[in-house]
């Protein structure tokens, strides 16, 4: 496993981020991701003079890191964030990107996931991801259906599709790692229908029983099938209950494991998220960002079928 982690770390540093000598690089991690952070550190010190910062684990995806860490990120050339809870949609990450830093978040990354999915052909993944993101940009209406009962309509007219390719070599470029999705922020008040989450759902992970989410005017009106998720959304307001993201997985090495970081990248799967979408063209400033994965969907973009029962047909 150690050698596989080292190879994956080199892929991240050289192939994905293209880190160069004398660049200011920061790795921010928490204890559950310590082995990942140090595998990156061991390879980074061969190239540059990085810093590494341990923070306390956050309590939910989207919670801000300490202010001092936010300041460090904003002054870095490159950041890598392997943490148990996601920093992807935090103001700290967004501000760092806007200031010119490039980097990657790795929420919930494990040794097994890193060793398997980061030893992939990211040029192949990027090709499909870029193609899908361009289609999202051109699309007005999305329809998603599954045999499990999903029937969801989204309005994404005027919103840009974003590619999460894993290739992050220019200023202000950002990606999840492992990468492999095209995603968009639907118009916040226009989503309607029912989505049956049957893969995994942050923060509970792998689902043994489906979670059914009913949506009207872009917001959750009912959650049933899982008491934990029912209670979670019940304690939040309208912004946290707003459908904020639609994504399509494009990574051929990813599989459903219960870890949303990987699950949302599974080729031919889709995911929807609730909460904050300011970082990718949305207008919903929420305290959380929680993703739910849907397996084997059929997806139409402006009435054109692009995925049939989890298989790309484009």
Percent in strands? 25-35%
Number of helices: 8
Characterize the overall form. Answer: globular
For the biggest sheet, the summary is: 8 strands, antiparallel
Unreliable runs, pLDDT <50, ≥5 residues?
A: none
Gap from first CA to last CA:
37 Å
Order of helices and strands: HEHEHEHEHHEEEEEEEEEEHEHEEEEE
Strand order of the largest sheet: 14-13-10-6-5-18-19-20
Radius of gyration: 18 Å
Per DSSP E runs of 2 or more residues, the count of β-strands stands at 20
- Helix/strand-derived category reads alpha+beta
Relative helix content? 10-25%
Determine the mean pLDDT: 95
Please provide a brief summary of the model.
This protein is an alpha+beta fold. It is 25% helix and 28% strand.
What structural keywords apply?
alpha+beta; single chain; 8 helices; globular; five-stranded parallel sheet; 314 residues; eight-stranded antiparallel sheet
Structure, explained:
- One of its GO terms (biological process) is proteolysis.
- Pfam families: NicX.
- InterPro entries: M29_Exopeptidase, NicX.
- The two termini are 37 Å apart.
- The protein has eight helices and 20 strands.
- The strands form four sheets. Strands 14-13-10-6-5-18-19-20 form an eight-stranded antiparallel β-sheet. A five-stranded parallel β-sheet has the order 2-1-3-4-8, sandwiched between helices. A five-stranded antiparallel β-sheet has the order 7-9-15-16-17.
- The longest helix is centred in the middle third of the chain and has 17 residues, at 122-138.
- 25% of the residues lie in helices and 28% in strands.
- α1 crosses α5 and α3 (67-74) packs parallel to α4.
- It has 314 residues and is α+β, with helices and mostly antiparallel strands.
């Amino acid at each position: 496993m150690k050698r596989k982690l080292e190879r994956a770390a080199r892929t991240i540093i050289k192939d994905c981020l293209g880190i160069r000598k004398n660049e200011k690089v920061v790795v921010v991690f928490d204890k559950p991701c310590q082995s990942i952070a140090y595998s990156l550190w061991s390879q980074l010190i061969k190239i540059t003079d990085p810093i590494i910062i341990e923070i306390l684990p956050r309590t939910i995806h989207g919670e801000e890191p300490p202010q001092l860490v936010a300041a460090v990120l904003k002054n870095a050339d490159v950041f890598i964030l392997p943490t148990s809870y996601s920093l992807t949609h935090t103001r700290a990450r967004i501000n760092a990107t806007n200031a010119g830093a490039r980097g990657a978040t790795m929420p919930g990354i494990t040794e097994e996931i890193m060793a398997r999915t980061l030893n992939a052909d990211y040029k192949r993944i990027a090709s499909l991801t870029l193609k899908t993101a361009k289609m999202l940009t051109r699309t007005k209406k999305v329809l998603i259906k599954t045999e499990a009962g999903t029937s969801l309509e989204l309005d994404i007219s005027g919103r840009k599709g974003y590619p999460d390719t894993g290739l992050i070599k220019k200023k202000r470029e950002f990606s999840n790692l492992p990468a492999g999705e095209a995603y968009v922020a639907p118009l916040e008040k226009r989503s309607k229908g029912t989505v049956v989450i049957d893969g995994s759902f942050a923060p509970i992970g792998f689902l043994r029983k489906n979670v059914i989410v009913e949506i009207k005017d872009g917001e959750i009106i009912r959650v049933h099938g899982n008491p934990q998720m029912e209670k979670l959304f019940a304690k939040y307001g309208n912004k946290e209950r707003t459908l904020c993201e639609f994504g399509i997985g494009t990574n051929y090495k990813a599989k459903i494991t219960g870890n949303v970081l990987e699950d949302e990248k599974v080729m031919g799967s889709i995911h929807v998220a609730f909460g904050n979408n300011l970082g990718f063209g949305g207008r919903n400033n929420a305290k959380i960002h929680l993703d739910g994965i849907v397996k084997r969907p059929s997806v139409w973009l402006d009435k054109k079928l692009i995925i049939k029962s989890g298989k790309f047909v484009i």
